[in-house]
Hints:
The complex is a heterodimer.
Chain A: H1 6-35, E1 47-53, E2 56-61, E3 73-76, E4 81-82, H2 95-101, E5 106-110, H3 123-142, E6 147-152, H4 155-165, E7 170-176, H5 187-191, H6 199-206, E8 208-209, H7 211-221, H8 225-235, H9 240-253, E9 256-257, E10 259-260, H10 261-273, H11 276-279, E11 283-284, E12 287-288, E13 298-303, H12 311-320, E14 326-331, H13 342-358
Parallel strand pairs in A: 3-5, 3-6, 6-7, 7-13, 13-14
Antiparallel strand pairs in A: 1-2, 2-5, 4-9, 8-10, 11-12
Chain B: H1 3-31, H2 38-58, H3 63-89, H4 92-126, H5 132-177, H6 179-182, H7 187-201
Amino acid sequence: MSEPNTSTVIDLAQQMQDEGLRSLQRFSKGLELLWWPPEPQVGKTLRQPIHRSNKSVLYRYGGAGDRRHGVPVVMVPNLGISRPYIFDLYPGSSFIEHMVGRGFDFYLLDWGVFGEEDNGLTVDECVTRILPRMYRKALETSGAEAGSLLGYCMGGPLSACYAALFPDGVRNLVNMAGPIDYARAGLFTRWLDARHFDVDKLVNTFGSMPADLVRIGFKMLRPTMDVTTFTNLWWNLTDERYVEGYLALGKWANEYVPFPGEFFRQWVKEFYQANKLIRGELELGGERVRLSAIACPLLVVGAKQDYICPPECARALMDAASSTDKEYHELPGGHISLIAGRAAARNAWPKVSTWLAEHSR
Amino acid sequence: MSEGARRHDHDFFSMWQRTMEQGFQGWSRAAAPPGLDVLQFWMQLFLRGLETWVQTLQQGGTVQDAMVQWKKFTDESVEHWSKVLGGAMDTEEFAAASGRLLDQILHVVGPLRTGLQAGSEEFCRTVNLPSRKQVTGLAAQIVAIDARLEAMEDRLGELAASLKSLEVLIRRPAAEQGPDAERGGRPEASRAGKAGRRRRDA
Lengths: 361, 202
């Protein structure tokens, strides 16, 4: 066995000392975050409330000088589950900031946090009462006759239902990770199966779908997610930008929102359990929702590692809609990395903004 | 206690026991799939990590390289673990077990909530305070009124739009008539005026 070189040993010791120091720095930063967690600054893009309807608010983003496209974009996010500031996370990492920067007259429908008094609210009312009103207000404010409807997550099917029922004012439709074919919605399809999941009993007991149960359901989808998140945080604790993003995303990821009881009942029964939307059996406001009535230009974006809405589940809209101008993109990453984070800024946002700009002329 | 009641209790407890056992089986299958010893899994993870670390250093890499390798290895292991768990949860057994577990929880929570609500309502009534149910009911009524007002506003908006389009239709012939329109006279009004005069003349 050869004698170890003295300089090599010293070098190795030096490196280990450096690594030890780095670990110490991480540890001290970790303690600082644990004891004095700074409040992340989220939702900083300039905005103005345009219209309120009960808990829901329609916001218009950016200033008059920012708007270059004549066709407004109305974004419809999920109702319940989480708050919509994920779309405007923090300056430099915000989808809305990106869209405003590209010259869009951008509107976001914040469904709000519903309370016990709203337990009677249904999907029906959201699509045929609240959404049309908000959409009309957006068009009135911008002075346009038609706009682009952008649905993300649950907002995807809600927007698709709206576009199918009221196609006149919808010039373009974008579905970002919005589930359409619920037979292909992954683990949720299995777990919410009528044979195992008694939605009536749940809603009758709690009156709503409590935020804590929503949290459990989503955590169960990826039980190792927290381990990965903390490991990544440990490695990047000395990177200020990373920590800023972690705090903002962490704030959002831990703020779960309940579902109104009747909304959740209808959502689970008609969408997940009976898969009525893709089958053309869904009725809202007394009218049959036919996805084939969607004839406007269509963009569908799916994420390869999406556990909430697998890409094939969102892609189903491509076949169901009768649009001739339609495009599908399957991007790397998961459900959230389609809308927030560095990967989103690199892949998804430019795809959506470029497509919308081309279709807003 | 009667024989029937005793049998009912026994049946209930055996059903509860059976459900719990099935639930635990489902969960333990999810947490540790067949053929996978949890301790062995983490031991292997640690030892392989250490091996990678030593190998990187032996090949002339720095301590930082070794740490990066170890991080990569940990990520891959967690990803693998995640896939294993995902596979176990994507089964009928797991769905049935979690459904039963939820059912059990609701079975306990339901009567408990009802009892607590009844108790708190009784208390509020005694001390002459509005109960939660009453406050919620009131809020729901306000929400309903708000919705009706919105519906009325929408209807008025539609009516205003109809009136506007009617006005456009009415004004169009006036513009087409030329001199009348120049004098600012409304053809309908002048027609009505002429008809009135004719009636008076007759």
